[in-house]
Design goal:
Its main location: other. One of its GO terms (biological process) is establishment of competence for transformation. Keywords: Competence, Membrane, Transmembrane, Transmembrane helix. It is found in: Cell surface. The protein is built from 1 helix and 8 strands, in the order αββββββββ. It has about 150 residues and is of the alpha+beta class. It has a single domain, classed as minor pseudopilin epsh domain (minor pseudopilin epsh fold, 3-Layer(bab) Sandwich), CATH 3.55.40. It has a 4-stranded antiparallel sheet with strand order 3-2-1-5, covered by helices on one side. Strands 4-6-7-8 form a 4-stranded antiparallel sheet, with helices on one face. The longest helix is centred in the N-terminal third of the chain and has 50 residues.
């Protein structure tokens, strides 16, 4: 009888099971990392667009409305410029699927920089936390607090 070195069926199944487990754990952690990055990107875009709205107000370009669009789950920054004709612009920020909007009252940043104070509420399923975006008066900005 000739003996060949190699894997038996049981050894092959064990090795394939271990490889499958290693890859599945890796994909789970990669998915969570992608969710964390998407949320971080959302808050950075909010801050960037808020600061751009403040800059437009300081330059006297016009008011900016900031509103939640439930149909496509986004925040819409909308403003107009008056040169020879009125031209309307908008910037849409997509909300990640892991963030749910609990309440969002429409905000208007006036040409003089005034913004009515208020609190917008979000829930993150990634961190299992409620976030409050607290808008400050006038030239103040907003900050995000978690509960």
């Amino acid at each position: 009888m000739i003996r060949h070195s190699g894997f038996t069926l049981i050894e092959s199944i064990i090795v394939l099971s271990i490889v499958t487990l290693v890859f599945s754990f890796g994909s789970v952690s990669m998915k969570r990392t992608a969710q964390i990055n998407a949320e971080r990107h959302f808050w950075q875009e909010m801050k960037q667009n808020w600061q751009a709205s403040q800059s437009r107000a300081q330059c006297g370009i016009g008011a900016t409305s900031i509103d939640y669009q439930p149909t496509d789950n986004s925040i819409l920054f909308k403003w107009s410029e008056y040169r020879r004709v009125k031209k309307t612009y908008h910037e849409r920020i997509k909300i990640p699927s892991t963030i749910k909007v609990i309440s969002f009252k429409k905000l208007v940043m006036m040409p003089n920089g005034y913004v009515q104070a208020g609190t917008q509420k979000f829930y993150s399923s990634t961190y299992h936390k409620q976030y409050k975006m607290k808008v400050q008066f006038a030239w103040g900005g907003f900050y995000v607090a978690d509960n």
